[in-house]
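INFO  loader      accepted 1 record
INFO  loader      residues=378
INFO  predictor   begin
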Amino acid sequence: MRIALDATPLLGVRTGVGRYVEYLLGALATGAVGAGDDDLVATAFTWRGAAALPAEVPAGVAVRHRPLPARALRALWARLEVPPVEWLAGRADVFHGTNFLLPPLRRAAGVLTVHDLSYLRTPGTVSADSLRYRELVPRSLRRAAVVCTPSAAVAVEVRAEYRLAADRVAVTPLGVDETWLRAEPPAADWLAARRLPERYLLFLGSLEPRKGLPALLAAYRELRAADAGTPPLVLAGPAGWGPTPDVTGLPRGSVLTPGYLDPAALRHVVAGAAALAFPSVYEGFGLPPLEALACGTPVVASDLPVTREVLGEAATLVPVGDSAALAGALAVALAGDGGPTARAARRAHAARFTWARCAETTRTAYAQALALSTPRPR
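INFO  predictor   done
INFO  writer      dumping tokens
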């Protein structure tokens, strides 16, 4: 099977979608989940930074792309059926739109990943670019034979919102790289070199409205009011968009923003945290709390359908936006992580989610897309 994928998310700062594409492509490239004779092709729908794509894909993955402006392509694909993806990526049996967008197809069977419906469910918390999915996703769905979602929770939403038949939606759960399962807390001097304290609470993610930072900061104020010795709160992740986190009333140095961390540093910081807070108002999967569990780190997260699905009883779940409940759960986490048995249980829960499984279910979706697609002359 000749499989082409949109690898645009591999370019620039590696966010959650970028990591999904990275690990999915890596697992597919091993050949362990397919017939072993798949041809993989990566392309990018942009001219900016596209020259770096060959260095970002695994060995054995070909790169084909035409350097065209991303904005112009999206504008065309939102209204027209040109240019077809084969003009950009070459011939393919299946083309996988990995990030909400599936271009027009000439002969390839189309597969589309819809990561969440935040552009519909929480439109006030997403960027202008994400709001464009309201027009782009429906048109992409009409081109797709099969739609992939990272969780069953999103699959239910997508089927209901767009009235899709069950056999057109495949759940392809994300995974945890094995390096997370071996992650260890950093040494004190490592933290000091990065101006981080030895003990801290951690938030990990883009600093944007959907992530629930106002509730977290309100909870942190409650914690400090009850105990001035509460460790600092570290907000790690790219700048995102939206208002700057409001730290009014909090002592200088009690909230730290180290910014984007490279993968190795990120694993150290997560493994060393007293607890990870995940106060999102809406999510499609939630990699940060699952990766924290892989490190054995306690997790306190918003009670959402997807967090119940992915984290289960391995994390403490609190009502969305309830800062008092969040503060109470974090106080319990700070009092102790449950010891080696609890940490081992968290790691075991996270270990059930693998990128090999994600690749296996995705490749099944490719085969299903071929079977569902109307044969086209070649």
